[in-house]
Amino acid sequence: MTDTGSTAQLPESLAEIVEDFAAVTGQDKLQLLLEFSRELPELPSHLEQAAMEPVPECQSPLFLSVDSGDRDGVQLYFSAPPEAPTTRGFASILHQGLDGHSAQDILAVPDDFYLDLGLGDVVSPLRLRGMSAMLARIKRHLR
């Protein structure tokens, strides 16, 4: 799934992130993931973690909230502790890649798009499944 046909299914912002990961190798991919983890925005004041949906498939505590009141501009919120940089990185990738896009665009993202990030050599399959679970829960909410 690493051809340009697959990134054509991704919103431009997510396709750019996939391309950024494709441009680096080995431990640089992990470094890029850590950069994303530092960029995950704080929750807005109106949203409390207790009101968010837990994602138990993640190895670290992760909570998400999907505001689909505007189907043309879905808002995504994530909460993960600073000591969980991999989980925060995945959440940040999804936030930066999908926040503000239409429900239709998000639902069109291939469930396994994360494989194109090429993190399989530096992140355990169990952790990668956590990212898959985040996307699946977002899509389930939008359906």
Question: What does this 3D model show about the protein?
Answer:
Helices cover 45% and strands 8% of the residues. It is built from six helices and three strands. Mean pLDDT is 92; it is low at 1-5. It is mostly helical and 143 residues long. It has a single domain (4-43, 50-142), classed as Sufe protein. Chain: A (Alpha-Beta Complex). It has helices at residues 4-7, 12-22, 27-38, 85-98, 103-107, 125-142; strands at 53-54, 63-67, 75-79. Helix 2 crosses helix 4 and helix 4 (85-98) packs parallel to helix 6 (125-142). This is SufE family protein.
- The CATH topology is given as Sufe protein. Chain: A
Number of helices: 6
Give the name of the CATH architecture: Alpha-Beta Complex
* Largest sheet, spatial ordering of strands: 1-2-3
The overall pLDDT, averaged over residues, is 92
What letter string, H or E per element, gives the SSE order? HHHEEEHHH
Distance between the termini: 24 Å
Radius of gyration: 14 Å
Percent helix, as a range, is 40-55%
| Coarse morphology | globular
Largest sheet: 3 strands, antiparallel
CATH class: Alpha Beta
Count the strands? 3
SS content category: mainly alpha
Overall tally of structural domains:
1
Oligomer: single chain
InterPro entries: Fe-S_metab-assoc_dom (IPR003808)
Protein name: SufE family protein
Domain Fe-S metabolism associated: 19-140
Family: Belongs to the SufE family.
